[in-house]
Amino acid sequence: MLRRFASTHTRVLFNHCQHQVLRPQQITTTTTTTHAQRLFSSNSPANIDKEIETITDLATTAKDEMEYAEESRNSVYYNEDKMTAHEAVDELTSAYNDLLGRISDADKKVIEGRIGMRIKEIQSAYEIMSLSDLED
After folding, report:
1. 3-state secondary structure (DSSP) of residue 20
2. What is the pTM assigned to this prediction?
3. CA–CA separation, 121 and 127 (whole Å)
4. At how many degrees (to 10) do helices 78-101 and 45-71 cross?
5. Which of 23, 27, 39, 136 has a 20 to 30 Å separation from 82 between CA atoms?
6. pLDDT greater than 90 at residue 16
7. Average pLDDT for the chain
8. Domain ranges of the chain
């Protein structure tokens, strides 16, 4: 278990398992962020366009993951591929809803017109894929 200690003079990382103190030059920084943290805090048109581009990339990834899952149907890889597709669709939905939650109603209509239908199509396709599993 790692714990961070911060001071104005030095930052160290204490490793409970090995009981050693690492100096800043020994620390390899890794940052874990959620999609919402990666999105910009400003709602300027340029930032909204960048977020739409990110959401479009997530949509492409989600669609690809669903296709991989469909291709692996009836194989040992299907459940894992379907879980990966589910995670991709969830990340897409979360990013889209986060964006819609932070913008004005007028901007929402524009965003929904640009990418809303594609998001809904991907969500519907995932639901159909899940329902077909229940029928099998």
Report:
1. strand
2. 0.66
3. 10
4. 160
5. 39
6. no
7. 78
8. 1-30, 35-135
